[in-house]
Design brief:
Helix content: 10-25%
Strand content: 35-45%
CATH class: Mainly Beta
Number of strands: 10
Radius of gyration: 21 Å
Largest sheet: 10 strands, antiparallel
Distance between the termini: 68 Å
CATH topology: Lipocalin
Shape: elongated
Structural class: alpha+beta
Number of helices: 2
Number of domains: 1
Order of helices and strands: HHEEEEEEEEEE
């Protein structure tokens, strides 16, 4: 009798744990809705706090490296670590720093409920943007994000961080 009781108890606990695994608290649901709104409105800032270069070791970043996204403008201020196949003439132009108003923006929801965003800048004559091919953002429902930057004359680099609403 005892083994049957223990088996039923374990089965009941397993079923209750599995049924509650996908449930969201009201706070998580509110956060997911806020993230959805700022992604759909194209009004957010990606704050990078960790960088993963293709070569070398990953490292944490100080506050202040970001990618601002709005309906009409993209502004990038990100560091670069890795191999560059063509160096800029001015050493102060290092990193991934640009501002553009000409870009393609495609957002789609992914299987986990987050978003995959592709940004392709079209201004190839702006300093700092000459070799940036694309910016890919993967955003979770709770606001965590990763950014992959693909360039023509540099190794790819990725950043981890979070998004928040853009301040006016």
């Amino acid at each position: 009798m005892k083994p049957l009781f223990k088996s039923l108890l374990i089965l009941a606990l397993a079923v209750s744990c599995l049924s509650g695994a996908g449930a969201q608290t009201p706070k998580q649901a509110a956060k997911a809705q806020a993230v959805k709104n700022i992604v759909n409105n194209m009004n957010f800032v990606f704050q990078a706090n960790y960088v993963n270069p293709q070569r070398g070791s990953a490292r944490s970043l100080d506050y202040g490296y970001d990618l601002l996204v709005s309906k009409d403008t993209i502004i990038a201020y990100l560091p670069y670590f890795g191999r560059a196949y063509a160096a800029p003439a001015d050493p102060t132009e290092g990193g991934i720093k640009f501002k553009t108003t000409h870009f393609d923006y495609k957002a789609k929801t992914n299987k986990k409920g987050g978003w995959d965003i592709l940004i392709v800048p079209k201004d190839k004559n702006i300093t700092g943007m000459r070799d940036v091919q694309s910016l890919r953002l993967s955003i979770t429902t709770n606001g965590y994000a990763s950014l992959n930057v693909t360039s023509i004359n540099r190794d790819p680099i990725s950043f981890d961080g979070y998004i928040e609403e853009r301040k006016k």
